[in-house]
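Practice problem: predict the structure.
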Amino acid sequence: MERQFRINWTLLVEEAKQRRIELKLTQQQLALLADVSTPTISRFENGKKDIQLSSIFHILKVLGMTDQRTLHFPNPDPIYLPDRMVVRFWGQDGDKKIQFEISSEALDDHFNGQSKDKLKIFKAHQARIEHEARRKYLANSTTSNESILIKTSDL
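Answer:
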């Protein structure tokens, strides 16, 4: 399972600068709202990389460029649906309840689930499955019915 996370710094900075301009904020106003110095805003908009990550996060948050969703699995309540060959479970983002499913094929291929109780396999590997569910949720990878299906190719 290979994970790659890359940031295109030039595009990020340019998008942030354009957002500031669209919001009709001066660098000074943005600095005040983000609780950073005006020179920090200037260095950021000039593509300098010697800025604290916390300062960058504050700037991006003010500009509406951060994802504030938080997905938890307080009561996943997994059930196996043999007709669909999936384990269905639930996540929570604030007041929103989100339906997830993981295919039997994914459980078989990645968690040695052949001829075994799918719920036991799910529970034994729940942390990794929830990690993938979170990744797909934050990437907006929903199906037509707004649920999220984890397939063998996702793991």
